């Protein structure tokens, strides 16, 4: 049996077909949007690391992911990712917290450094005990103990310390003071590697050792958030070979004994 649509029926079929095509397009577009990095991405890091590297990293990431809006919070304290609604924390630590998923990004080493001008004036220490005769710049709680035995003393007591013209609570200030030839500073590789390459700072070898690999840089996040395209894409981006820590690791590896 044959059917013939009325004029109203033909109009209905034409409109319905167009609406179905539009509906399919909306569904496909929505699926693509859900699987595409977009929206706000909140990242936290320490003040010194964020200041030194994250503006450049964010800029390169945004070139590839223009629909992601980045929020950066700098804080030297470990923040609760859930309470502060943070997607990713970039932290430098010897032991990452166990309640987050972690991705190790780089090794972070520390070393004593001074400017060429300071060393030309004061000479370079060859042993840690030699620091007693130098100007030492200190980050309280970070710089190792600077108490030594008196030169020529047979006693094992470590009651003598070097002159400490400046004590701060910021690696950035410590770096600035070292670059200004104010003394010897204990500084991390993520801050000093470029200055070593440029000849602005000289790493000091004392007692046969120059580099102290004590920490690592980690990306911390909740495992459930890795399913989110913006979180996954940023972490994958941090693991690529062009990141600044690849270069600082190369610089520091040349100094290891």
UniProtKB/TrEMBL annotation:
Alphabetized Pfam families for the sequence: LysR_substrate
Record-level GO BP terms: DNA-templated transcription
CDD domains reported for this sequence: PBP2_CrgA_like (cd08422)
LysR substrate-binding domain ranges (all copies): 37-241
A single GO molecular function term of this UniProt record: DNA-binding transcription factor activity
Family designation: Belongs to the LysR transcriptional regulatory family.
Name assigned to this protein: LysR family transcriptional regulator
Source organism of the structure: Salmonella enterica (Salmonella choleraesuis)
């Amino acid at each position: 049996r044959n059917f013939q649509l009325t004029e109203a029926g033909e109009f209905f079929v034409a409109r319905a077909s167009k609406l179905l095509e539009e509906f399919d397009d909306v569904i496909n577009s929505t699926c693509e949007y859900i699987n595409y990095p977009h929206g706000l991405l909140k990242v936290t890091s320490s003040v010194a690391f964020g200041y030194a590297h994250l503006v450049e990293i964010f800029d390169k990431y945004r070139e590839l992911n223009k629909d992601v809006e980045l929020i950066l919070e700098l804080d030297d304290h470990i923040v609760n990712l859930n309470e502060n609604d943070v997607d990713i924390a970039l932290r430098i630590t010897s032991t990452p917290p166990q309640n987050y998923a972690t991705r190790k990004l780089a090794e972070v080493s520390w070393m004593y450094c001074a400017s060429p001008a300071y060393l030309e004036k004061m000479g370079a220490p060859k042993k840690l005990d030699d620091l007693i005769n130098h100007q030492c710049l200190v980050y309280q709680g970070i710089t190792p103990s600077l108490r030594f035995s008196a030169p020529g003393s047979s006693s094992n007591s470590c009651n003598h310390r070097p002159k400490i013209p400046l004590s701060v609570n910021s690696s950035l200030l410590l770096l600035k003071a070292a670059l200004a030839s104010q003394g010897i500073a204990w500084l991390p590789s993520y801050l000093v590697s470029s200055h070593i390459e440029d000849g602005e700072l000289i790493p000091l070898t004392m007692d046969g050792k120059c580099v102290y690999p004590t920490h690592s840089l980690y990306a911390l996040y909740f495992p459930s958030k890795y399913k989110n395209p913006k979180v996954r894409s940023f972490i994958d981006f941090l693991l690529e070979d062009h990141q600044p820590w690849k270069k600082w690791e190369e610089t520091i590896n040349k100094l290891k004994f």
